[in-house]
Amino acid sequence: NFQQYSKYHLNILKNEYIKNNDINILNELNNENKLITIDYLNQLKKYLPTNEIDKLILKYSQEQHFIWIESILIRSMRQGDWLILENVNTCSLSVLDRLNSLLEPNGQLILNEGGGQDLIIKPHKNFRLILTMDPKQGNGEISRAMKNRCCEIYIDNQQEYNYYDLKELIQSCQIYQTKQQEDFIQIHQILCQK
Fold it and tell me: Per the confidence metrics, is the pTM higher than 0.70?
């Protein structure tokens, strides 16, 4: 159990300190468990000089901080990848509404969670965002504002489809490049298999 584990480590630390009279042994504790280390150090104040322990607690406390890690959406925007967000209607509407500015012509995404300053991210010219939804799942709808920024394509559950009808439908969404049309048809085939 955790208490026995903690007492065991406290005894080892106390004995090492007494044996070596050297507080540096504490620096070799596992960095992944710094919160536990700080707790141990607080408990060690009973056995070791307080000023040395306080220095170590300060050191470990200063090393801990949150770091910003970019999501797959941000990486896709920067690298020009295509990203499929499946079942977007199961997502919170407030989260989806954050994407509206990205879906505008010459859109961009404004992030204010990244550590103080607003970060404006403009997507790579090849970036594409494909949203799928199943009205039978989630809350059933996405906002009208988001729908207005998308090309909406209804895909029936039937497996059969007419290649030329699909191609014409894709062209009606102002996608004229043959490669992109073929990619959308391939995506359609994959989605119909699920």
Answer: no
